[in-house]
Model the fold of this input.
Amino acid sequence: MGIRRFFIGWDQPIVELANEFLVVELFEELISKTLVVVPSKQAARKLKNRYRENSKFDNHPIFGTPETALDLFEKDSEKPANKTEKALAWALTLKNIKLTQLRNIFPIAPPDRSMNWALRTSNAFISLKNSLNEGGLNISDVIENEGQDFVDLSRWKELEHLESTVESSLKENGLSHLSKSFLNSPSSIGDIEQIILIGLPDPPKILTDALQSISASHKISIVIYAPDSEQSSFSEWGRPMTEHWSNHKINIPNAESSIRHVSSPDEQSREVGSIISEHSDPHGMVGIINNDTELIPSLKSELKKHNLNVYNPSGELCSNQEIYATLSLFRDLMSSGSFESAIELLKHPEIINHIVINNDNEDIQIETTDQIDTVNNNDDPELAAANILVSLDRINDKHIPTSLDTALKFSADNEHPDLTNSALKQLKEWLDQLHDNLIENLPGILQSIYSGREFDSEDDEEFSHTAEYLNSILNEIRSSPLQSMDGSEQLNFILSALKSERVPEKREPDSLDIQGWLEVLWENSPHLIITGMNEGSIPDRIAGDIFLPDSLRSKLGLRNNESILARDNYIFNATLNWRNSCGRVDIILGKESLEGNPLKPSRLLFQCDDSELADRALSLCSRINSSEIIHPWTSAWKLEPMKIDKAAKIFEEISVTQFSNYLSCPFRFYLLNLMGMNDNQPVEMEMDAMQFGTFVHQVLEDFGKNDGIRDNQDESEIYKFLEKRIEFRATRKFGTKRTVPLSFQINSIKERLKWFSAIQANERSLGWKIIHSEFKIHINNEIKVGNLKLKGTIDRIEQNENDGSWRILDYKTSAKAINPDKAHLKNITQSSSDSIPDWRTYISDKKRSKWINLQIPLYVHAAKLIFEKESIGSGYFNLGNTQSSMKIEMWDDLKEDLMESSLTCAENVSKEISNCNFWPPSDSPKYDNYSEIIFGDCDSSFDPGEILQK
Done:
């Protein structure tokens, strides 16, 4: 019977012309025995509905896609493996096969052959198989076609071995991942006698081979959406000829106004909303073709503002669903067992709420800034959940636990609420269950987590679909070799399978469809909006295929970059053609992706007449649209600090170290001391600078308070003592299992204190004897600066046995040695001199300095009053990270006039605090712990109204 071609023109929508063709060409006796093949289910639905409206016959043909046609040829007893079955077979093969047999594929053996690696790697091989399947080919067929002269023969031989191993594994379950050749298929394909391909410019080679094999016994018609004048530009199967269409001119009417080049995905969506708003009722009038999946969320959001429902026929990825996120968190905890992963899980609203609501303890201690209240669990679960997270932060700050197990031990201390320990115990219980038997225990864990949620059958359809698909994956694992593998590998497989699955969307009444490029021929709305018209999206581009380069694809008759360019050029021309006289096309493209990466305009936009090309290029390659104004960033609103609490402790007492905080920035001092806002630190794997210094101070306090060792002049004995105290405190604080960075820090402390031991032994031999270690100046003494009581702890106070002199030393653990003078005073520049009050300045030899720290002078002042001494020396005992920076730096210039200046500054700071002067803030403090809430400057971020009302 042969293969016939028909050209139906392109001056009307394809649905209309295709329907007219069917009405004329289909005879009653053949109608029910005809299969009409179109590119997609959406196209099949449209043509089927149109045909039913106009047909004079009661029966109608079968409307389907290329997959529908190929199903007619499937006669084998082995059924094709689905996506999950393929992924499992390939991953298990890669995990277990001897890599010595695959030297050309894996010249360097992977360091970790985990299931996660196998799943990631299998994607490349499955992609290869899918590409070959388009041509009805297997890996072995490529070798046969290319022959022994094949340049890459050795690697493809190994690929063939992999393919054979996977196929053997699938055959055990009656499955296959081989492409079927239809050249020798029987002439009968059921009751179908006629197959018509309509508007299919890119039929897969496997389909055309199959149809060729039955063309002698069946009627095969190829219906091409183009006029008769284009007969020479299409192949026998309706494919656009590359030599004709690759460089075919594309006439875009009113290109200057119809092509919109905007900055970002959000801008593209706003442009769509603006265009659609021109229609009082866009339904049936406007069609949306989107070529960039990044745009879909913002398109939906934007059109919602215009009270328009949007439908995405391709559906949402399961990886965007909540269950996927929950499983990912459990996967991270299973694979690492880390405290950081535990915290992330407990930040999950459903998990933390489940733990709070189902906790056995009726009463829970809720710790706030100023007090501890007892609340009923069910009265305020949100407060209880917040308290758990605060407590976990404190555990991390104090102990830096490496694992959930270590954190559990520390959370059992009385200083933490019982609920924190209960939360970690619940995670541990779930973790043990998943490691024991993930397949059986996972559903129960998820059920308990979501037991408190009220589900709506319509609103939670996507959640339900994801849950059902998860159940099907679990069932597949139960009967597979993965059943014997550990829970982490099983969960990796589950997530990998879920990642590529899509959740069908619910279609709301009167929805506008967001369709893909290959649907554009079948969109019959007169006004078409095309978004994402960027290179790489249109035309699609195959790049960097490690197994099938473009040249090999062309030789094998598979889709390649040249054939895709020709196809998309033809589609664009056909889409524009009938709308040139009775419609409109708006084309929108972006300059940047969602991540800010630059995007190129589609090359199809440059396939215009030479007379237009220069202006088109200038328009599409300009950096910024002339009409586009980029406004400077501003805050949406200002934060309002709380009213000053006059009963706060800072109005009664102040520590020596807090003076430098106020001198750095009065407003940030307010945030810390009156609002209790500490900087938000992420979970750390090591001690920060403050924790490191505190640890060293604690070890040296042990040394200074031990009468038996602090007077010792033997550096080896001193270090032996210090080393034991380091290990004791490290074990008590961090446990025995420590992170690598933490272990390095502990070793660094040992090295520093070994150098310290030598200096300490020498200083003791010179007569310096420690008489006080970690001396608290506020215990049994009331020293006031202004109206505020002074608090502070002097690291060590010494007296020299030879001459009776006294000195104060403050330990410093900075990497480099610090000079006390420079740490307290800073030169004043000419530009800033006017804004600095006189009480903060010190003038010496016509050089003006400002106080930035008052620690040492205030220690000296307090010590003189307490010990009734006229003269006390002072300095830093630097404990740097090199032996040369390990030294004592005395502040020899701290004379009477300098002391007097420092006390004047301290008294005025005290007065400023007492008078509630916390505004204006400093412009740029050296260390800013509040940069996350202060965007640019405090004036634009905060409303100081409450602070200024004193």
Residues 362-378 have pLDDT under 50 and may be disordered. The radius of gyration is 38 Å. The chain has 36 helices and 28 strands. The first helix runs from residue 14 to 25.
